[in-house]
Predict the structure of RNA-binding protein.
Amino acid sequence: MSLSQAQKKAFRSIGHHLDPVVTVSENGISEGVITELDRALQDHELIKVKLALPERDDRAAMIDELLDASGAELIQKIGKVALLYRHNPKVNPKLSNIKRFEEHHGRR
């Protein structure tokens, strides 16, 4: 699932207005974090994840682990926040950040 640059740009525009819904602490990735990440991606498709780790290399490794565990795609990472996307063909339009914001960002 490779997104075009135009799609990524539109998703970054939507992601700018989102707050992180999952936080990963220095304790690392637990079963609870993976479960919550999966639920958030299922419901919202596009989410922000906050990585409360001081070292840049540790954050990059944590993002790789999250992507592998969730099957999501990295849209953007800035500092301690990563924007992740995973398509859900049966998404609830009232919960999906993509569906809710698509008319507000020049996508229609």
Summary: The chain has one domain: 5-106. The chain has a mean pLDDT of 91.
